User: Fold these one by one.
Assistant:
Number 1:
Amino acid sequence: FSSVELTRHYLDRIARLDSRYNSYITVTEDIALAQAKAADERLATGDAPALCGVPIAHKDIFCTNGIRTSCGSKMLDNFIPPYDATVVENYRNAGAVMLGKVNMDEFAMGSSNESSFYGPVKNPWNTNCVPGGSSGGSAAAVAAHLAPAATATDTGGSIRQPASLCGLTGLKPTYGRVSRWGMIAFASSLDQGGPITRTAEDAAIMLNTMASFDDKDSTCVDQPLEDYTATLNDSLQGLRIGVPKEYFGEGLDPQTAERVQAAIQEFEKLGAEVKEISLPHTDLSVPAYYVIAPAECSANLSRFDGVRYGYRCEDPKDLNDLYKRSRGEGFGEEVKRRILVGSYALSAGYYDAYYRKAQQVRRLIKQDFVDAFNDVDVVMGPTATSPAFEFGAKSSDPVAMYLEDIYTIATNLAGLPGMSIPCGLVDGKPVGLQLIGNFFAEGKLLNAAHQFQ
Ligand code: GLN
């Protein structure tokens, strides 16, 4: 079948079914069909990249030239970027077809997709439950077969946790592997783009196109590109797996723990050696993150002032009124909470007590992993504390919501690649196994995941 037929198939499904899930904010039907037609012509030449003609969805955090990019916020409801993010450009150049822009927590702040200006996303496995966040739209779209794959971003778990809750594969690459240019910033030292797919093989194909060196992002690493599909079938004989004892403590649902332990044992059958390790500063990762991420967000979001772009209040009396009301009306509650926390942590007199301290703790957390990777190749544990929870279960308690990312946040603080793959069900809902690798060891993670799947 042709790319036009495949694209029509997905567009039809979106039109028919997405009212149940609310995974898309914008469907770019005309662009998709035009791109599919061009891809069919390129495929006919016999010389086209692997993704040519394949439809995908982009998280609405990636700028798309001429297409509204909302970041899940009223603040950017009217924002039409004049350029493409590097990630979007990479997929366009590879001939991939853009189906549309998918839903997310406002400015990627959240773990349940309940904070989007466009309404919550429903988990296709159980529509009373959240899909996870912040990339809940990416995960729900792939889980409901409304896209074969989607782009996403992960600042503290936003690729891995929704992948876990929706029974999918999600990969957060090493910080610097994927360009952040044109990806709306939340916490710049932690943000990283990556794919959400059904399988590790699909994730490898997606990452092959997504990863690039980009001189427009000064934190992008000039490291040779790899073909992540080339090592998928390597043997796992002798692979050293470390299981941190801190990832199986209080707060982890016992049935989830059981599924994750069983999955790790499967790796032993594939020839891996499993041993217990310790990441002693694990319990400090949530507090350190919730100082550093809000601090960076308070600086990044200062650009939304009602002047240059985005939402502007009606009839401002003067400049201060313009700032105050544009930001007061344009941002949602969680975003405001983060800006307040971050501004406080950075203010004179508190900076040393909070921000500097959090950065020192971050260094200790990274060192835990550096030490661990002297002895093991891959670290494994749960991705989330439980399967998908119901709407409203955590939305009125920010700290309960923040603890949702207790197993994923340390990876971002350290800059390491992390992945979540499905490893079974609890009460009919998916559970994710998390794999954490050394810097630039995405190929190893994908290899291990592919052998398991
Ligand atoms: N849930 C975390 C937060 O709310 C992580 C979000 C993310 O990775 N973008 O900050």
Number 2:
Amino acid sequence: MSAQPELFTWEFATDPYSAYAWLRENSPVHRTTLPSGVEAWLVTRYADAKQALADQRLSKNPAHHDEPAHARGKTGIPGERKAELMTHLLNIDPPDHTRLRRLVSKAFTPRRVAEFAPRVQELTDRLIDGFEAKGEADLIHEFAFPLPIYAICDMLGVPRQDQDDFRDWAGMMIRHGGGPRGGVARSVKKMRGYLAELIHRKREEPGDDLISELIRTSDHGEHLTENEAAAMAFILLFAGFETTVNLIGNGVYALLRNPEQRERLQVSLAAGETELLATGVEELLRYDGPVELATWRYATESLVISGQRIAAGDPVLVVLAAADRDPERFAAPDTLDLSRRDNQHLGYGHGIHYCLGAPLARLEGQTALATLLRRMPDLRLAGDPADLRWRGGLIMRGLRTLPVEFTA
Ligand code: HEM
């Protein structure tokens, strides 16, 4: 048995997959101390991960965590300690989760997402127009970062003239999520204040947008409280933002590093086919997905996973990135195969917290990749891949920058 790899170092952030292979093999349910000082269990095998994601004994409610005082609130989502935004889907269990999820599912329908396709295409083209003539770009800042924030703002009904404020607040939250709290706290506060006001305005003057729909939607006569509506808008923004940035960033990077696969996709797109694009985006999610670890879970009672006893109150982190490379589940798991068929990856989670925004994420991912490859057929990395830096966050995996070149 080779030596146990060090976790959460700079090398690990660059390539966590060899460390995860070691854990799957040698310590599949692994106790570790996180950079924040919190002790948690990492679940790395696919079968265990899938089961844990659906296990109702693992609660999403942070109140179940008897953590030391110094670590409180470090659950990975900026501003989570603010009670008003705490009641969102990723922090609650049934029956509250069931009620709120049903309400939002009614408003966030596949039809609404499908209707949104032309707008996503238009946004994508507009962003590319902004840098096409330069022959170079940082695809994270100029493309992957603004696309989802404008898309979600549009969907929620944030007026266009206010969307740049949102982009700035969200940028602050991404950049400093695990760092200096002052700027993040200010951004969360501004966003919270803005959302409260927006919800108030939409109650008075509803429109054809998700917030108005959320307010209108009732469930057995029960409406969302103002607080629940704000928490819902916040989680839609938060859950749908950095994830999609990284789907595009990690996805483009993986394609540029696998030229035969990229070539196949370009040929298929040029022939007007969409099948390889659809299976390809799923494969990119499996191969190097945006959510490295699922959001936090806490054992409500003592339980056993793969022979390992976990005590009540212990945090459990399901490592989606490790599960999705498990050779017990996927043939040649370290190979990118855009046409992979048997691909039930856990990139969107599993069970009752399965990603609500998966149809929107697919739409954005497919539109972004197809349009980039069509408009910049000779897109290539600028500079040495060894110089690229990955963000060191716990939950998400994504590049800080992605410099590219192409024929203008
Ligand atoms: C939940 C991944 C985009 C909204 C989740 C979960 C994962 C995930 C893994 C489950 C977390 C857990 O169980 O701990 C992704 C990925 C995305 C993406 C990889 C992009 C590629 C989006 C978008 C939206 C969204 C665009 C909405 C606009 C949500 C919400 C939840 C969620 C609301 C919580 C659902 C619940 O608790 O019932 N997502 N997501 N996501 N996602 Fe996404």
